[in-house]
Give the backbone structure.
Amino acid sequence: MAEAKLRVDKWLWQARFFKTRSLAAKQVSGGHVRLNGNRVLKPAQAVGPGDVLTFPQGRVVRVVRVEKLGERRGPAPEAQALYFDMTEKKDTPPKNPSFEGKGRPTKKDRRALDLSRTKEG
């Protein structure tokens, strides 16, 4: 029996890496996806268990190993069972921008601003 295979764009969609299959196909066609280290340009490229996919997702480059092929696009826990995430984890979480004290002026500040504008003219 031949080893089961699935289109790379369909697998990426079923594993919930992309919201639509056409977005997944666009990433593959654009040359942004690598299969076992080789660039893939055709969305119909077959993937199977044991294959390693590398692709950008947001600001992170994801590296995942295909564990099994899905039969449908199911809920997130079902999708997470399709792959093993080999992406390097960063120790420090990204810093949120801090509040600098700037923002909407108070009513007192707005009155002072209005007064300074009327005196200039």
About this structure: The beta strands are 6-7, 33-35, 38-40, 46-47, 52-57, 60-66, 83-85. The chain has a mean pLDDT of 88. The chain has one domain: 1-88.
